[in-house]
Amino acid sequence: MNNNMTPVARPFHAWLLLLCGCMSVLAAVVIAPVLPQMQEHFAATPNVEFMVPMALTSPGLVIALLSMAVGILADRTGRKNLLVAGLALYAVFGVAPVFLDSLPTIIGTRIGVGLAEAIIMTSSVALIGDYYSGVQRERYLALNTTLSSTSAVMFIAIGGALGELGWRVPFMLYSISIILALLALVTLWEPKRHQPQELLESLSDEEKALWNPLKVAGICAVTLVGGILFMSVQVHIGYLLHSVDITAPGTIGLLASMGQVAVVIGSISFRFFLSSSWFVTPVRLAVALGFIGCGYLLIGNANGAAEIMVTGVMVAGLGGGLLLPTMMVWNMSNLPPHRRALGTGAWMAAFFLGQFFTPMVVVGLQDVLGSHAAAIGFIGQFVVPVALLLAIGQRLVRNRVVSLA
Questions:
Q1: Which is nearest to 342 in space by CA: 22, 54, 74?
Q2: Residue 303 in 3-state DSSP?
Q3: Taking each helix axis from N to C terminus, what angle separates 306-332 and 134-163, rounded to the nearest 10 degrees?
Q4: What string of DSSP letters covers 256-307?
Q5: Nearest-CA neighbor of 119 among 237, 224, 27?
Q6: How far is CA 100 from CA 28, 53, 152, in A?
Q7: Are residues 147 and 22 in contact, defined by beta-carbon separation less than 8 angstroms?
Q8: What gap in Å lies between CA 255 and CA 270, rounded to an integer?
Q9: I need a labelling partner for 138 at 20 to 30 A (CA). Which of 125, 246, 268, 392 fits?
Q10: Count of CB atoms situated within 10 Å of the CB of 209
Q11: Phi-psi region of 280 (alpha: psi -120 to 50; beta: other; left: phi over 0)
């Protein structure tokens, strides 16, 4: 390859980066089916009932805390090598519990997995932003949600099947990141980098004006709330279904998978319909929040009716599938090249911090209102009016622009 020529990004490169992003999903769900087995194995460990769930949730908190720092590092040192290193660390820390018999040590390796995830996710999304632009970039960012949700369904099933062989076996799946690391090393390239002053001089006036820290902070604040809305039903699906007398683990797993399928359908809808120029960000947010809010209201008013509860879960899932790519595209469109990894890291931090806060918000409301369903319904009472205000506000702005034209 001619070193003086910029390589051309093909669909293969996008799919490789999207598969790298799926490693965060694998880390979150593949061991979920074996947590009871882990708790039984480490029954003699003090506070085991608290520590075992931490093995699942701790990587998300680490991502929230470190993604911005990783973004700064990626902007300064480059994305590709950092991505390869993150994939290698992911395999090392991910597989380690197979050989360990100390629960605190295993949780330590899970913190390492969180670090690796922060590196992988920030670098891979930033590279998508570097390699592609315009509608093509939006489609790949939307596909990120589609692929992640689809892989979640698969990884849950694979983790459960491997768990039949012992609670350690699902951890072996983390080794597949080595394959991705080798592919990334061979096929990806580092976007052209400049010295800071040279880079600033090479930017157009439009690109220089694009960087607005206050606006990015505002997007991240919305993303934090979006993370809570995206995860509230997914995290508490078991409690919600129990409230309508659906208690069989197999049935709960099936319905949880159906919720993920709804997320996939929502993200596909974004890609094929909401990516048109007419659907600007406020409209996209209004549609996504409208679905989420209506789904939440159905859940809150199920009153023991399983059909209404499941319908609410599906409707909220559709909204979540629309919301996530909307927020990702909104953030990416406000990041100039020299701040792309930093802005991506800030967005990741906000989203995963929202995930971390989700149980606190829902359980806190449940303590006051009496049930998880009531807590979800209460949130829906605020989300629907916000969706309506966004839609009305955008309509008024559009009419004013047309009248002035």
A1: 74
A2: coil
A3: 130
A4: HHHHHHHHHHHHHHIIIIITSTTS-HHHHHHHHHHHHHHHHHHHHT-TT-HH
A5: 27
A6: 20, 17, 26
A7: yes
A8: 23
A9: 392
A10: 10
A11: beta
Which of 381, 243, 264 minimizes the C-alpha distance to 317? 264
Q: For position 250, what pLDDT does the model report?
A: 66
Q: DSSP readout, 371-389? A: SHHHHHHHHHHHHHHHHHH
Question: Which residue reads 């919305």 in tokens?
Answer: 222
How many residues appear in the chain? Answer: 405
Q: In whole angstroms, what is the distance from residue 316 CA to residue 320 CA?
A: 6
Q: Is the dihedral of CA 217, 222, 228, 231 positive or negative?
A: negative
Amino acid at 75: D
Q: What contacts 24+ positions apart, CB below 8 Å, involve 361-366? A: 361/228, 361/232, 362/232, 362/235, 362/236
Rounded Cα gap, residues 189 and 17, in angstroms: 12
Contact (CB, 8 A) for 311 and 128: no
Q: Which domains does the chain have, with CATH numbers?
A: 1-193 (1.20.1250.20), 204-405 (1.20.1250.20)
What value, to the nearest 5°, has the Cα angle with vertex 69 and ends 65 and 74? 135
Please report how the helices 213-242 and 372-404 are oriented relative to each other, as an axis angle in degrees rounded to 10. 140
Q: What is the pLDDT along the chain (405 residues), one digit of tens a residue?
A: 445 567 888 889 999 999 998 998 888 778 877 777 888 899 888 888 778 777 877 888 898 888 888 888 888 888 899 999 999 999 999 999 999 999 999 999 999 999 999 999 989 988 998 898 887 887 888 788 788 878 877 887 787 778 888 889 989 999 999 999 999 999 999 887 655 445 555 555 565 566 788 999 999 999 999 999 998 888 788 778 888 888 776 677 678 778 888 888 988 888 776 556 667 888 889 999 999 999 999 999 999 889 999 999 999 999 999 999 899 889 988 888 777 788 888 998 899 888 888 888 888 898 899 898 999 999 999 999 999 999 898 877 766 544 444
Q: Which of 252, 239, 237 is nearest to 295 (CA)?
A: 237
